[in-house]
Amino acid sequence: MSLAEQGTPQSRTFTEPQINAWYRLTPQGAVEPLNREATTGLGGRRSVTLAAYQKLVAARYGDKLPGSAYARKGLAGGYGLVDPTASAGPAAAAGRAVAGPSPAGAPGPWMWTAVGGGAALAAGAVLALRRRSAARG
């Protein structure tokens, strides 16, 4: 069974692709690691609350959001380091467009992955809370 298939109707699996980690969100709101990378990502713990996991992710990737120093250096969205002192070359001198990183703050492909992952986590949390309320109700 693949890691993605380890979810149940009551729990959901999700990935943190930056570190190849797979997790399960339980109906109780706990995030459990499903592979070695996920266990490492949780600091060796067997589970953490969803809120604690969100804090871990914010600490790991919060400095890479649009407008950050990381983005201003041109590293966001898969671009390499930008040397602001480098000459733009003959294309710029001739008035033609020069390919380069998107401007700081412009959404890159990674942002859509992060947004999708955040939306999936939020949806899973809401679903878990609703199911828990229904079970008590």
Plain-language structure description:
- This protein has helices spanning 36-41, 50-61, 69-72, 90-93, 109-136, and strands at 12-16, 21-25, 30-33, 48-49.
- It has 137 residues and is α+β, with helices and mostly antiparallel strands.
- Strands 1-2-3-4 form a four-stranded antiparallel β-sheet.
- A hairpin with a 4-residue loop joins β2 (21-25) and β3.
- It starts with 11 loop residues before the first strand and ends with a helix.
- The relative contact order is 0.14.
- Mean pLDDT is 75; it is low at 88-100.
Number of helices: 5
> What profile does the largest beta sheet have?
4 strands, antiparallel
End-to-end Cα distance, whole Å, is: 34 Å
Percentage of residues assigned to helices: 25-40%
| Beta strand % | 5-15%
How are the strands ordered across the major sheet? Answer: 1-2-3-4
Radius of gyration: 20 Å
Tell me the number of strands.
4
Structural class of the helix and strand makeup? alpha+beta
Order of helices and strands: EEEHEHHHH
Low-confidence stretches: 88-100
What gross morphology would you assign? globular
Q: Mean of the pLDDT scores? A: 75
